[in-house]
Amino acid sequence: MRQNQPKKTVASTIKSVKPLVIATWKTDLAVETAAAYLAKGASALDAVEQGCRIEEANEKGQSVGKGGLPDRDGNVTLDACIMDEKGNYGAVLGVKNIKHVISVARKVMEDTPHVMLVGEGAEQFAVSKGFERENLLTEASKKAWEKWKIKSEYKPIINIENHDTIGMLAVDKDGNISGACTTSGLAYKLAGRVGDSPIIGGGLFVDNEVGGASATGLGEEVLKTVGSFLIVELMRQGKTPQEACEIAIGRIVNKPGKDFKNFQVGYIAVNKQGETGAYSIHQWFSYNLFKNGENKNIQSNYFNKA
Ligand code: ASP
């Protein structure tokens, strides 16, 4: 009888998991960096932090870290969160002047009794931990904002085709899973707006017994369906990562009257067996996957084939 079958233990499943990294969008270098850390025996937590730092430092990327597009008042504000294999979580929201917010989020998780710090408090905390203040608005992003200001159309822009928020999940040699997510949020957002990326269960969720998931795209829609948490819970119930990502996208697009034509959401997921999944509303969502020693950028399957 089913009830009498021994429960699969974590120890019995990790054997089949190779060091693995999966991250949203075309994030070759970030994933390669995380994989290199794993190869040296680093924890999944160190790997995702170091991988995300690559994108935060990449000034050409206009949606993460330095060079991120500002809010409509011209301020670059960053959001990030991190989760380890023990279920610990740390996040910072709406932080100005600090590039490596993923590392600040880790400090919140490890060095404070809290899980979230916001705005000025988060910035002051970062400085107290030795992070340097710097201007995050690059010339290119300033120019883009100045161009946007001419019309000042308040219509948050979702980057359907290119590179965006980085959400990253890694499985280390011990089979432990951690995740991280970092972003400058929606371009030209209202000052103070925060999306899904730094919110537990929204932009990121990890349960080391089951797997992890991360999101990119219109954070408001991810939050309303608690997307990453939903995916992990679906995997707990036996869905594959791919099935779970597809159901989570379904929760968004199948809402009565939902006009999903003008926004994108993409999910990635990994389970304890090292199986991965990805799904988005529209075409052009891609993800990087490092598995069996190879790092590939892969186009995700998507819902809107119309
Ligand atoms: N999810 C991010 C946010 O809503 C933005 C993105 O991924 O493009 O802030």
In summary, what is this structure?
The protein has 306 residues and is an alpha+beta fold.
CA-based shape: globular
Compute the number of structural domains.
1
Question: What's the CATH class label?
Answer: Alpha Beta
Give the structural class: alpha+beta
Find the count of extended strands (DSSP E, 2+ residues): 13
Instruction: Indicate the radius of gyration in whole angstroms.
Output: 18 Å
Helix coverage percent: 25-40%
Strand content: 15-25%
Layout of helices and strands:
Elements lengths: L9 H4 L6 E5 L3 H12 L4 H14 L20 E6 L5 E7 L5 H11 L4 E3 H10 L10 H13 L14 E6 L5 E7 L20 E4 L3 E7 L1 H6 L2 H10 L4 H13 L11 E7 L4 E5 L5 E6 L2 E6 L1 E2 L4
Parallel strand pairs: 3-4, 10-13
Antiparallel strand pairs: 1-5, 1-11, 2-3, 2-6, 5-6, 7-8, 8-9, 9-10, 11-12
The site of aspartic acid has 13 residues, from strand 8.
Question: Please, could you describe this protein's structure?
Answer:
- The protein has helices at 10-13, 28-39, 44-57, 101-111, 119-128, 139-151, 219-224, 227-236, 241-253, and strands spanning 20-24, 78-83, 89-95, 116-118, 166-171, 177-183, 204-207, 211-217, 265-271, 276-280, 286-291, 294-299, 301-302.
- It is built from nine helices and 13 strands.
- It is of the alpha+beta class and 306 residues long.
- It has a single domain (16-302), classed as 4-Layer Sandwich (Glutamine Phosphoribosylpyrophosphate, subunit 1, domain 1).
- Residues 1-16 have low confidence and may be disordered.
- The termini are far apart.
